[in-house]
Specification:
five-stranded mixed sheet; seven-stranded parallel sheet; 2 domains; homodimer; Alpha/beta knot; 250 residues; elongated; Ribosomal Protein L25, Chain P; 25% strand; 34% helix; alpha/beta
Chain lengths: 250, 250
């Protein structure tokens, strides 16, 4: 069933008012009519099955049929800190990471990031990523939309490590040394509800100074398998194996 | 170190001759000179560190320094059978699947595939995917280049299930029922060197007839986590968790 995330104002006790792009999508793209049902979610994670009662061009009314109880969220809160990659790779990372259960994303200007975000364009870039996260959450039946946080430097990121229970850095030098067990040791130390920060470097990887700074600040370097992954693939591997360890095996 | 897969003819006892696009890449793109080192691999999985002895425009000679012994290949042979998806998604699937360790790919025309491959264009499409697989293998330091197999139908695919030790179908109805444990039960039954077929549906999923046919032919339906993944994300999840179960935990 089609799913839409709506601002809190849209929800009344037993009715929902859908406006803007979501109303257009329901009316014009999906060509739905009164009596059709969709799922509407607050950004806080409450989801309701609703039945459309009136479909106008820019405003749709619906009545709540039932609150949904299924919860497909990861049992841990995973933030992906991604070194700014080239081109539109960050969009891919946010889309796929949202499907795979990430709770938030932090774009990070790293020593080897070739791309720089101009101050004036940062808001626009964030809005674009927020839209991608919202659409991916709707498609993958999430209960929440991941947050896109402010652009940070590696130093600022390291200073915020204390906000997390675990900080795992995907470091290919660890992969080359064959130290595969570090990842399973790291993940088996995770408890449900823990906050995890996954740190992924840009195309050129981390500088030695960044690794030193992050390790000093408490990060654990892990190999994400023995093959060298492109920057946009590393978070997909990380989120998939966190799901496997905590949702499937756990 | 830069890595190139070369035809068997390129290798002599202790020397290598690099021609064509690879020679252009080394000479013009990487601007390498005599004395620089690269890695050259046969398509059978033998890799050598070589030192360039002569760099001409279209032909490069190199001498073998040593045979490489590290093996970053998955301990199982995973074939991804992918229902034909829209747009250039199959290219993404081959690129990411190669990074994540797949051994081969089978494009499959499924009941709900919107895209059809015209007979006349099949060779060209396969060549394009082979090029993507080669480049991704080079970048991710694989020892082999995954095979791109002939286009098949779901029926033909089912008839070939006996070639595999395990056939796992990513089926979202299993996910909706909350039967998460099926995937770990499936993966813990896998032994090293086994042949695994991962079957992934197109955007619209499998038809009930396809599921029935595959299950009758011996396939196991598994949920790939509790979230609904896009078609191009499912094989990434599957390959990542196979790596985790067999390379990291195993």
């Amino acid at each position: 069933m089609q799913r839409y995330f709506l601002a809190n104002e849209a929800f009344n006790e037993s009715s929902v008012k859908i406006t803007g792009d979501d109303a257009k999508h329901i009316g014009r793209v999906m060509r739905m009519e009164s009596g059709d049902t969709v799922i509407c979610c607050t950004y806080e994670g409450d989801c309701y099955e609703v039945s459309l009662t009136s479909v106008e061009q820019d405003a749709i009314d619906a009545k709540v049929i039932r609150k949904l109880l299924d919860d497909p969220e990861l049992p841990v809160h995973v933030t992906v800190a991604q070194g700014l990659p080239k081109g539109d790779k960050l969009e891919t990372i946010v889309q796929k990471g949202t499907e795979l259960g990430a709770a938030s994303f932090i774009p990070v200007t790293m020593d080897r990031s070739i791309v720089k975000w101009q101050k004036a364009k940062q808001d626009k870039k964030r809005q674009r990523l927020e839209k991608i996260a919202k659409e991916a959450s709707e498609q993958s039946h999430r209960r929440i939309v991941p947050h896109i946080k402010d652009l940070a430097t590696t130093k600022e990121l390291s200073q915020a490590f204390s906000n997390y229970d675990h900080v795992f850095v995907a470091y290919e030098e660890t992969a080359k040394k064959g130290e595969q067990h570090l990842l399973s040791a790291a993940l088996t130390s995770v408890n449900k509800q823990d906050k995890i920060l996954l740190v992924i470097g840009p195309e050129g990887g981390f500088s030695p100074e960044e690794i030193e700074q992050m390790v000093e600040s408490g990060a654990t370097c892990c190999a994400f398998g023995p093959r060298i992954l492109r920057t946009e693939t590393a978070s997909m591997y990380g989120l998939s194996v966190i799901s496997y360890q905590l949702e499937i095996l756990g």
